[in-house]
Amino acid sequence: MVRIGLMMLRTQPIHELSIDAIAGQAGISRSLLFHYFPSKRDYYVAVISAAGRRLLRVTKPDDSLPPDEQLHEMLIQFVAFITRRRTAYISFVRGAAGGDDYAVKVYDETRAGLTKRVLTYLGLPEVAEVPASSEYMRVHAWLAYTEDLAIEWSGLPEKDRQTTDKELVAHAIEALHLLRKL
């Protein structure tokens, strides 16, 4: 059932998922869905949690690559993920921004996972465990910048994009290094 929600999330925001449509697609009754998920909110939490785990999984590069290439590959996959699932991704971000407790928690956990990964690629795994450090907060904020760039870039018609995805990633990495010097 969560897989069905993830598939539907590709084309519509989480709050627009219909429990009846999900149950119908699963070939079960609505009451059986509520047997596994006591409420619509519980189902939504399961779906967006799975989406957060998927984002972390698909953006995890090959561990055998050098750290700078791991960072580059992670960002290429991050931009690709946002581009492929832009509507659902925006719903995820805005759900968190809108203060939905369950969305905020999942979004925060996902962003923390990405932040820790970047810090490890930068050779700072010990900082990844100190969210109050200035280095952690800079990388965390830089991810927000990179995320917004990817959302805006992916929303443009391809013919109107002034840069390629690789150029966007190169810019984001350059911005990270500049921000770390401040």
TrEMBL record:
Point out the DNA-binding stretch(es).
Answer: 18-37
| Cited Pfam families | TetR_C_46 (PF21943), TetR_N (PF00440)
Q: Say yes or no: keyword Transcription regulation present.
A: yes
Please provide, alphabetically and separated by semicolons, the GO molecular function terms listed in this UniProt record.
DNA-binding transcription factor activity; transcription cis-regulatory region binding
Q: Which UniProt keywords apply?
A: DNA-binding, Transcription, Transcription regulation
- Give the InterPro entries listed for this entry: DesT_TetR_C (IPR054129), Homeodomain-like_sf (IPR009057), HTH-type_TetR-like_transc_reg (IPR050109), HTH_TetR (IPR001647)
Q: What is this protein called?
A: TetR family transcriptional regulator
Organism, by scientific name, is Kribbella pittospori
